[in-house]
Amino acid sequence: MSSKARLFAIIALALAALIAPNLVLSEAPAAAGMLGLGGLGFVLATLAAGLRIGVLAALLVGAASGIAVAGSAVVAIGVLVMVATAIGLGVSARWHWNRAFIALPITVAFIVAEDPRQDPLASGFAFGAAMAGYGLVVAVISSPLRPRKRIGDGEPVSDPASWSRTWGYTTVLAVTTAATSAIALTFDWGHTGGWLMMTPFIVIQPYIQDGWRKAFSRTLGTVGGFLIAYLLGELLGSGDLLTVFGVAFGVLAVTAMVERWPYAVYATLLTPAIVILESIGRPIQTTDNNRLVATVLGVALALLAMAVATPLYRFQARRYGLDHY
Fold first, then answer.
1. Given 37, 48, 269, 322, which is the most exposed site by the fewest CB atoms within 10 A?
2. pTM of the prediction?
3. Phi-psi category of 159—alpha, beta or left, where left has phi over 0 and alpha has psi -120 to 50?
4. Taking the domains of the chain in order of start, what are their residue ranges?
């Protein structure tokens, strides 16, 4: 399959994974939305890491989702689920999969923040089973689209990161996630808390230097995306045409992810897509403003954690004669 044909097929599959639950569970839009967001994550995870890891991700996210829903009334359970999710993403950085897996912790964050259970997925077991089952289906369908890289094809292959660097990143991510989760759940921020909890996963990177660049790029992209979403909301109201624009930005964001466009461009495209699609049933200006507050706080906490960890990262880099830390 040519690269252009594969890209088209990936975009079509990502859109189908995002939309299909809403067609099947039209009477349960909150639950369907979370399944759709998870479906997008399973597509990207399988493309990056293969079928076996895609299946494992489906089972783990399904279990985390079920536990989060069943224990939605207990703050400690939500915090523990988010910390476990952070550890999972941190360990995936050993094989450089963390960027491709990013939609999965975002999905779990929104499930923890705002209980999505609705009939027929009205229990933790039912919701977790539905998430795992949907993930398995998506992983199997996505697997044939994964590029088959062979030795000599001109593609550089990254060596696994060291376990010391992997666990350092995992620790910083887990501690920051514990803080954002405790704040969001203790003060019952609901939907807005999801934006707070997801921010460390996007900003914090295995290498501190990358994290600072990513924070700057995300800030630029987020501000630009907010402006686009706000202007579209003012011009188009909250009708179907605005939803079409949200889907269009989602398509462009998936393209940016697969084609590895600059991160600021990716963030600029992804922000209006999520703001618009997540605002269905809410005034878009309210969603936009709430997300801005949560994102700013999340970025501040992530940067604080990175600043505290920088001396240790720099010491370890000098110890092993490395310039990149």
1. 322
2. 0.86
3. beta
4. 3-319
Instruction: Please give the Cα distance from 285 to 44 (Å, whole number).
Output: 30
Residue 183: CB atoms within 10 A of its CB come to: 18
310-315 contacts: CB < 8 A, separation 24 or more?
Answer: 310/208, 312/168, 313/168, 313/207, 313/208, 314/208
Q: Is 71 left (phi over 0), alpha (psi -120 to 50) or beta?
A: alpha
Query: What pLDDT is recorded for position 188?
Result: 92
Cα–Cα distances (Å) from 152 to 10, 146, 155, in that order, read 25, 18, 8
Beta bridge partners of 121: 118
For the chain, the 3-state helix, strand and coil shares in percent, each to the nearest 5, are: 80, 0, 20
Tell me if 314 sits within 8 A of 325, measured CB to CB.
yes
Give me the residue label for tokens 């923890």.
Answer: 112
pLDDT digits (tens, 9 = 90+) for 255-298: 887 787 887 787 788 778 777 766 655 555 555 567 778 878 88
